[in-house]
Amino acid sequence: MRTKSIGFRILLWYGVSISLILLVYSALTFAFFYHRLDRDLTADLFRDAELVMASFNPYEEAGPDSNPDLRDKLETEWEETWVEILGPDGRVVFRYFPRGKASLLDGLPAMDPAERLEMNLKGPAQPHAKVVQVPFQVEEDRYDVRLARTLWRPRRELTTFLLVQALALPVGVFISCLGGYFLTRRVLSPIGRLVAKAQKITAERLAERLPVENPHDELGHLATMFNQTLARVEASFNELKRFTADASHELRTPLTAMRSVGEIGLREGQGEEGLRETIASMLEEADRMARLVDSLLTLSRADSGKASLVFAPVDLADLAAEVAEYLEVLAEDKGQTLSTRALGRPLAHLLVRADRLVLRQAVVNILDNAIKYTPEGGRIALSVTDSPEGPVLAIADTGPGLAPEHAALIFERFYRADKGRCRDFGGTGLGLAIAKWAVEANGGRIRVVTEPGLGCRFLLVFPRLNGQPLET
Amino acid sequence: MSHPEASHVRILIVEDEVKVARALKEGLQAEQYECALAHTGEEAFFLLNAEPFDLVLLDLMLPGRDGLEILSAMRRQGLDLPVLVLTARDTVEDRVRGLDSGADDYLTKPFAFPELVARLRALSRRGRSDQTLKLAAADLEMDVAARTARRDGADLDLTQREFALLEYLLRNQGRIVSREMLARDVWQETGRATPLDNVIDVHIARLRKKVDQGQGQKLIHTVRGVGFIIKTNTEAEA
Q: For residue B44, which of A179, A302, A431, B38 is within the disulfide window of CB 3.0 to 4.6 Å?
């Protein structure tokens, strides 16, 4: 059943429910009808008993042919009615059994006299029948009239009724199912159209969207949701395509350099010194490529969620001081001031939950970036402060700053505010992208506050560690 | 360059990439190692059972049998010679590290040759580390215990980092030291994506200034594209 379509299953359930409902309905109707027939028969018998009384002449001699008028009436008008009238002494004074049917019921059962009674006769030897007894007075004498009638006629009616039901029920079920089938098909057909359309959507045609026939019904919701998912997939796919294109471009650059340097090196008359130079240059390019590949691997591991982080409390001040000490020589080399005392305040010792190595990578990348882009003699400051948002590690520089359109894209992979310039510094264009991932993987957020001419200020904001008081 | 400790050390190189295998063999032979080549796991296994080796250089990405399989099979057979594993930098690296696969050391590709030589040296003289406390090259002397260094009789004023750097270069005197080696052994950095090269270069430049400035003989040399080396004029290249 699991393999069948939804349409089939709906139809099956529908058919079963309709059948059950119709069966219950038939049973109830039958019961009602049966009861009604039974009651009618009893009423008929009582009424007929009155007629018999009215036509009975008690003064006639009892005998097989007495009361011929009554006999005649019974013969012609009533069918299958057994009649007995008992006299005051309890003897039968009138008896009429239907012609040819006498053997069916060779006598009415004994009943308490002088009572108005009804009873059902049943048993293997005799036909099912209903018997009534009505006492009546003729002057001073009391008579009892008894009428019996077989249940043959009501039985036949019930049988007919059942037959009609047995025929009508399957037809009803069939018609209902047919209606259900068309209804189901009509309801499900938009799904079929969605499926057909979805099948046409491939990696090459991600821009296609599913038709939304009615945005307010369930299928409309489904299609809308699907379209939203599709939009996200398309966005990541495009990003991936761009990333792949960028990566191959970035990889091709050192390859091209290696190739041209090698080809030039192979020209005759280079001399040993020249060849050494050539090989060294090629090795440098190979190094650059290895670094780039390593960065790409870091990001691809991050993307695929393979990077396993080990979280532990990390003191942001310690981390900032360590990274500052580590990269200080680069700043010194450019005559820059690298300070870890923003506005004369020492770094606040705030704990965050992070993978220290990964977080350190982020800080190293950002600080390295700041040192690279800040001109000689500039200032770079690291600070750790508490903010309402949580602990903040900030790295501010007095570099050229960025226009808003660049600032928005600075964490994108391979994005360079100044094309071509970064490579002179040996950058891969991935440093800040890795930093962004590293901060976010540690539950933090990263943003840059910048304006042209006013330097950059990178803010790494982390969730507050549980129970850590806000320092004032 | 001749290194006495390298002679008569037999290395089995298991590497399927023909170019890399040949480069490794030639490079290691130049370092006075005896080398045999196996291009497949089966071949490696055959050779290991046929001849004695002191060291195995094992590439993990092999056709047929995976390098780790060979390694565990070797260990099961009771072959306990040191194994240096070469891996591409992906999940295999973690497996080598994490699963305690029986490798003695691992190196990720691409690697600098000096680094490989340093690892092999460390493995082949396992157990006895270089404990010398007095180091010297020409008129440069270093007393590791007293943390002093002198050039031509004059004390050098070195920072801690510079001292560690010079000590490392001196211990590897006559051999090229790559930036990766410095990053790992002097800075204790593991990730290669960290932009450390500039930091190392600046420190080397400062050290060179303190050690070589005003001296007739330069001791610290840069080998472009590879790394750095301390060598005296007697070993100087042409």
A: B38
